[in-house]
């Protein structure tokens, strides 16, 4: 017997949102701190920079290990359901889960398929970790706002999605904000009298390249998982398992590739994994931070399940924005031994403001009532459909507005995907005579909510599917 799930509201929801905010912020802060810690002392002729824990590919393996912990959370959930059934107790189930069964979305998947998106995730995350060794954490976080632009363009090219005037305006504002933030790296002058961190333009370039693979991950997951309604904890956990397995294979190979020492090559190898283990032994704090990063990733996913299921898009955007602000404030004012402080930049401030406003406009949290910006929002389209004013030629996919995205696309399996799948299948069911079966369950599109969702640790700066997966 199934019971409808109760929606979390009030103080309990705000506490979960706070937990998600803290876990997401901690992940970036801890990773940056780890980059600055001293491990095994190097020869006297090696600059101090080359004595720090600079192992971005090892950190990627650690990230995937954190995602694997989500399989444990998924297992606990299955155990709870089994215990409830054994006791003859009702098992809470969201209307979305019930609808997924009625409209025949697949709820099980061959784990091998998830190795493909895991490969995209591996490349993108590794490049991001390399970039974090070159640029301040706040710049790193803000530059990830570019994911909205990348995935929007890829969605048009590969998924035939359609965007409207308010979307393109939001994208333009985000692009301008990214450019302003990037300018900090090109115009910043380091004060030799202060221990402050500068921005390497190469790091900014790596973030932008990494977003191409994050966008590719989004497209691959949309193509592969289009007919599935899956538990996000299971998806994230399995992708973490595949990512970690791939890193175990790749790390010994990178160990054997020599290179000239520089920003992309520390210790004379692409990745000196053996030195990383010696660093662990030399400085136990590095081990402690690795463990903390793992649990921050798992916690971020666990809190994300509840937040995306119960919170509004405006509330989720507040978490995303607050996360970036907290990281920025932390490194501006909090002193951690061996970690250089960030410097304030008006380029970065104004860039961040454009990023936030562009994202809110894109996600229709802010709707401008002029220049026809409000003509093709989700609410406006629904009103037109109800009034029979929108003909099929203005649709964005097969039948009505299937494929229309009113939220930022994001490279992670999450609630927005499940919601779109159910909406699409319900449209098809309505046209194909299946609508009565849905009504028999007491379900309609306005009632459907996704059972759960998740955000990977390297979440981007886009909002409602998420502001994601943030490293």
UniProtKB/TrEMBL annotation:
A GO cellular component annotation in the UniProt record? Golgi membrane
TM stretches of this protein: 12-30, 61-80, 112-135, 141-159, 168-187, 202-220, 232-254, 285-307, 319-337, 349-371
Which keywords does UniProt give here? Membrane, Transmembrane, Transmembrane helix
Q: Where in the cell is it found?
A: Membrane
Q: Coiled-coil annotation: which residues?
A: none
Q: Name one GO molecular function term.
A: pyrimidine nucleotide-sugar transmembrane transporter activity
Source domain of life is Eukaryota
Chief location bin: membrane
Q: Which InterPro entries match?
A: EmrE-like, Nuc_sug_transpt
Topology in the lipid bilayer:
Multi-pass membrane protein
| Keyword Transmembrane appears in the UniProt entry | yes
> Can you say what this protein is called?
Uncharacterized protein
What species is this protein from?
Answer: Halteria grandinella
């Amino acid at each position: 017997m199934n019971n409808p799930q109760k929606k979390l509201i009030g103080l309990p929801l705000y506490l979960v949102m706070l937990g998600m905010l803290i876990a997401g912020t901690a992940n970036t802060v801890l990773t940056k701190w780890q980059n600055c810690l001293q491990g095994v002392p190097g020869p006297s002729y090696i600059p101090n920079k080359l004595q720090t824990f600079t192992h971005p590919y090892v950190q990627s393996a650690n990230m995937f290990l954190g995602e694997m912990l989500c399989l444990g959370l998924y297992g606990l959930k299955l155990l709870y359901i089994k215990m409830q059934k054994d006791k003859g107790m009702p098992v809470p189930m969201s209307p979305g889960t019930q609808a997924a069964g009625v409209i025949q979305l697949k709820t099980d998947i061959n784990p091998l398929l998830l190795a493909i998106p895991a490969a995209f995730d591996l490349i993108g995350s590794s490049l991001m970790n390399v970039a974090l060794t070159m640029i301040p954490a706040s710049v790193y976080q803000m530059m990830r706002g570019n994911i909205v632009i990348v995935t929007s363009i890829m969605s048009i090219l590969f998924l035939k999605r359609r965007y409207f005037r308010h979307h393109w305006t939001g994208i333009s504002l985000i692009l301008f904000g990214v450019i302003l933030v990037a300018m900090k790296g090109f115009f910043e002058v380091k004060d030799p009298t202060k221990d402050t961190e500068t921005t390497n333009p190469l790091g900014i370039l790596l973030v932008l390249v990494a977003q191409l693979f994050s966008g590719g991950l989004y497209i691959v997951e949309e193509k592969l998982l289009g007919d599935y309604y899956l538990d996000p904890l299971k998806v994230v956990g399995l992708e973490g398992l595949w990512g970690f397995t791939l890193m175990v294979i790749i790390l010994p190979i990178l160990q054997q590739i020599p290179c000239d020492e520089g920003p992309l090559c520390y210790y004379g190898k692409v990745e000196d994994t053996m030195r990383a283990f010696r660093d662990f032994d030399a400085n136990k704090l590095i081990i402690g931070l690795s463990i903390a990063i793992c649990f921050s990733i798992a916690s971020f996913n666990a809190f994300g399940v509840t937040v995306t299921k119960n919170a509004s898009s405006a509330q989720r955007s507040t978490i995303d924005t607050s996360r970036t602000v907290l990281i920025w404030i932390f490194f501006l004012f909090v002193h951690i031994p061996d970690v250089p402080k960030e410097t304030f930049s008006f380029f970065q401030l104004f860039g961040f403001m454009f990023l936030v406003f562009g994202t809110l406009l894109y996600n229709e949290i802010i709707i401008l009532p002029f220049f026809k910006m409000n003509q093709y929002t989700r609410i406006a389209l629904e009103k037109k459909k109800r009034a029979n004013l929108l003909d099929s030629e203005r649709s964005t996919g097969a039948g009505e507005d299937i494929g229309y995205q009113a939220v930022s696309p994001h490279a992670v399996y999450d609630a927005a995907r499940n919601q779109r799948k159910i909406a699409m299948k319900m449209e098809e069911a309505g046209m194909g005579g299946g609508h009565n079966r849905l009504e028999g369950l007491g379900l309609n599109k306005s009632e459907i909510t996704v059972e759960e969702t998740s955000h990977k640790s390297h979440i981007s700066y886009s909002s409602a599917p998420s502001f994601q997966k943030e490293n």
